[in-house]
Specification:
alpha/beta, three-stranded mixed sheet, 14 strands, about 40% helix, binds sulfoquinovose-uridine-C1,5'-diphosphate, Epimerase_deHydtase, UDP-sulfoquinovose synthase, NAD(P)-bd_dom_sf
Amino acid sequence: MRIAVLGGDGFVGWPTSLHLSNLGHEVHILDNLSRRWIDTELGVQSLTPMDSIQERCRIWKQETGNQIQFHLLDLAKEFERLKTWLAEHRPDAIIHFAEQRAAPYSMKTDRHKVYTVDNNVNATHNLLAAMVETGIDAHLVHLGTMGVYGYSSVGAPIPEGYLDIEIDTPTGKKQQQVLYPTRPGSVYHMTKSLDQIMFQFFAQNDGLRITDLHQGIVWGTHTDQTRRHEQLINRFDYDGDYGTVLNRFLIQAAIGYPLTVHGTGGQTRAFIHIQDCVRCIELALADAPAAGERVKIFNQMTETHRVRDLAAMVARLSGAKVMNLPNPRKEAAENDLIVKNDQFLALGLNPITLEEGLLSEVVDVAKKYQHRIDRLRVPAVSAWTKEIAAEVDHDPEAHAQDAKAAE
Ligand code: USQ
């Protein structure tokens, strides 16, 4: 297949591009490199040293003979160029990762909220409109998030996209299937909830073939392909805005920084290893909906864990201390989470679960590159509301001193 990977320079986009190229697909990365600019804005860098996207593609070709082509394009701002590109290349599948993906970044300031909505909503709508206008028959696979559902403790499992309901009508009870209600917990998660509505409309109105993957928190860093050469290494975010919880705990353990548990750590979340992410994309690509079919929705996760249990596990593994901090986010202090993932299991996913070897691999990567870590960037200081901001310490130096005291 000819596959366009939008956002193919990012944390999941890059290993996905390699995985698909390795399977023999013709891969084109379209990316505006915004993630690299955001690093510059925040004054942080990936824990792992990343080469330019052009250099990464060159190394991949040298290693495997397979070519990945890179196209610098801003989906949210360059609608005409996007249309021209699609009309010219007519991909069989499009994988859409090209959205700002950090909840804390989206809540940093009003400017970050506006940027996240402008970028994410425009990127998705531009893509859908361009697909209709060019008339290409491509299967669109979008990376969504489990977080659209708000991790509620209703007791029943979160279904894969649709909820069966029964409503009273004047002629009796009627069955209906509706999109499972969203309850986003950040502006970022809100944009992914809006994406769902756009997909529903374009599938129904224009017959676009769309799969939406509701992914959990990704952990790990390497896939089979990123291990092949040091310059194919994946990016690794450890900072308070882009670092995600388990990977953060693992680098904290590696550098002797106490594990930063927000509140009681009673938040239960869905998780998936990076190797399984790329496998899920492969499986979703092979299971495209037909034109006129409703949007196919998968829960892309393999297990759920409570934050404090993860911290305890990493502490056991490494001897790290645990530090309970005031939570900068507005979220339930404690929640349960049950999630259905039957569809990927039925398609042959054999989940990688948390196991010591893979956790230690991340710690080893972090130890190797620990000289690149700025400890002042470890604390999470983006607060969800002005009230919370007044309670959370914004001074990274003060955080660093607390961390030193807790060591
Ligand atoms: N947390 C801590 N300590 C930390 C960092 C986080 O206790 O140092 C807590 C947070 O308060 C939260 C939980 O860990 O309760 C998860 O936070 P996270 O930063 O790992 O994940 P999140 O903000 O939800 O976002 C990440 C990705 C996002 C993806 C989402 C999947 O950045 O792109 O959509 O995970 S999910 O969480 O299932 O919605």
